[in-house]
Specification:
Blueprint: E1 5-10, H1 20-29, E2 33-41, H2 56-77, E3 80-86, H3 88-99, E4 104-107, H4 116-129, E5 134-136, E6 148-152, H5 157-169, E7 175-183, H6 195-203, E8 207-215, H7 220-230, E9 235-239, H8 245-251, H9 254-260, E10 267-270
Parallel strand pairs: 1-2, 1-4, 2-3, 4-5, 6-7, 6-9, 7-8, 9-10
Antiparallel strand pairs: 5-10
Helix pairs in contact: 3-4
């Protein structure tokens, strides 16, 4: 898979303004065309607005100002701009349709959206319906093609697709750490869930190793992210929604926890 077209998504507030340069930097790393997308769910009387308590007048002012700022960046960088203004469900559906025309999607951290709920809704929709990899960027962005990859490995379809995608993004001398997070009560085993995949990667002359982590007093997501950060990972790779999103939001899950929280390392997530 070659990354030749990237869709970078922002909201209408000033929160995402400083993130445009970060997104442009990622497009340059992969020598890809960048499209700047504005997601702007229109407020409706009596219904939830994004951000909360947004009046129609203020919404129009924000969208107009943000559109001007995006086009100012786009003209300098020869980018395209797409505007998605509609009721929230229609705007998200239109964004999903557009996302399928690109190779990878960029979404900033939760801080770059003025409304955390819109950020979560967007990521859920894109993960489940776009069929594309999503790169969740921290404020620092991405410095170059990643060399140290930390993979949350459970052997499921979703993370297998995510790893395949990551191998096209990483540096040729990348080091891959397949991390299996087991519950504290899991019995010791001679084979880890990542052993077979690690062997196959090594057969392709890739530097790969397997790690075992036990979720003690922290969640699986927190354990995985902590081990990746401790290993100085440049990129964390996850499979998205191995369980249904409803189950994850009610009972907890790695995907839902990652979406809802801040992170300092880029995360590639694929459903």
């Amino acid at each position: 898979m070659t990354i030749s077209s990237i869709l970078a998504i922002s909201d209408p507030t000033e929160a995402t303004d400083g993130f445009a340069d970060t997104m442009l930097g990622v497009a340059r790393i992969f020598d890809a065309e960048l499209t700047l997308a504005l997601l702007a769910p229109a407020p409706v009387a009596g219904e939830r607005a994004y951000p909360k308590h947004l009046t129609t007048q203020r919404f129009n002012e924000l969208v107009e100002a943000k559109e001007k700022r995006l086009w100012s960046v786009a003209r300098k960088e020869n980018c395209e701009v797409r505007i998605f203004v509609d009721l929230v469900d229609a705007a998200l559906s239109a964004m999903v349709r557009q996302s399928r025309c690109h190779d990878m999607l960029l979404v900033g951290p939760i801080d770059t959206f003025a409304d955390a709920e819109l950020h979560r809704m967007l990521l859920q929709k894109l993960l489940l319906l776009s069929g594309k990899p999503i790169l969740l960027l921290p404020p620092a962005g991405l410095e170059g093609r990643p060399r140290r990859l930390a993979v949350g490995w459970d052997g499921m379809r979703e993370v297998t697709r995510a790893l395949d995608c990551a191998l096209t993004l990483c540096a040729s001398d990348a080091e891959i750490d397949l991390i299996s997070v087991l519950p504290l009560t899991a019995p010791p085993t001679l084979r880890t869930p990542a052993e077979d995949m690690c062997t196959r990667l090594q057969e392709r002359n890739l530097s790969a190793r397997q790690s075992l982590a036990r979720a003690e007093h922290a969640s699986v997501a927190a354990t995985l992210l902590a081990q990746a950060v401790a290993g100085n990972a440049d990129l964390i790779i996850l499979g998205g929604f191995g369980h249904s999103p409803i189950r994850e939001s009610v009972f907890g899950g790695v995907t839902d926890e990652v979406i809802r929280n801040r992170h300092t390392t880029p995360i590639l997530i694929v459903h």
